[in-house]
Amino acid sequence: MKAKKDNQFKSPPKIRIDGWVxxxxxxxxxxxxxVNKVKKLLSAKKAGHAGxxxxxxxxxxxxxxxxxxxxxxxIVESDKTYEFMICWGESRDTDDVLGRKTGVSTKIPSNEEIxxxxxxxxxxxxxxPPVFSAIKVEGQxxxxxxxxxxxxxxxxxxVKIETLxxxxxxxxxxxxxxxxxxxxxxxxxxxxxxxxxxxxxxHISQIRRTRVGPFQLADAISLEMIDQLSHSARAQRAVxxxxxxxxxxxxxAVTKAEAGRIRNGQSLRLPTSKEGLVRITExxxxxxxxxxxxxVARPLRVFKxx
Length: 306
Hints:
It is globular, with a radius of gyration of 23 Å. The two termini are 40 Å apart. The protein is an alpha+beta fold. The chain is built from eight helices and 18 strands. The longest helix is centred in the first third of the chain and has 11 residues, at 31-41. β2 (47-49) and β3 form a beta hairpin. The protein folds into three domains: 2-77 and 214-244, no CATH class; 80-212, Pseudouridine synthase; 249-302, Archaeosine Trna-guanine Transglycosylase, Chain: A, domain 4, CATH 2.30.130.10. The strands form four sheets. Strands 1, 2, 3, 4, 7, 10, 11, 12 and 13 form a nine-stranded mixed beta sheet that branches. Strands 14-16-17-18-15 form a five-stranded mixed beta sheet, with helices on one face. A two-stranded antiparallel ribbon has the order 5-6.
């Protein structure tokens, strides 16, 4: 009788789920906490996320399940779009509203001054990450060192900003922007640096990610919705195919026999003019990511049958 009662409290068995779940993350929660919640709610065996969002940040967090985790590196490399608000006249140690005040300025830049300065941040630029970031310094996360009050020195790095626009007038000392940028770009650093270049101080008060590569915020759902779906057969409808993450990468079709060889890690000589990174497909099935050079496809990541 006791054994039967204990079984009632066992966690449901983990199942293999392959694909992407697009989450509209709320504030405060960490990206890791969101992934763990999705994994638990869907009873998935394996999960990960593509592109960390700061606790303050909301918006699109793509969560990879099962075989989709193998495509995370390709999504992480993709451009991302953010909408954010800068609060002028005050700096914070975290470069966002959650941090401790470190300085004040009475200057509030005009719309014209802001627009004139934005061009200096387009293209490839040097950017120093915030000290409260996940970058490792001698084996430790920078934010852990900063929280202990230790001095943290991070080297500038090259990042790329594709577009940067002001999308609101400056009101009550705040201005809204939209930016599309490449891997490794920190919105908090941009706010800090833009403010300093305008002769003032500033920090992020709001930030929302609206796009990650091929994924759009409009297709995302909340954790609450995942929770509701997890109690019904509709849960699988929230999972997008693994291939969704790779739509911008050229496809190369092979036969069933060739697919078997690729899955065994063998290279193939194929009649193709394609060069570089490709996704190998057989019918509607994703077989592998491969590099093609002089007509020879060498598998980089092989996918299990889905």
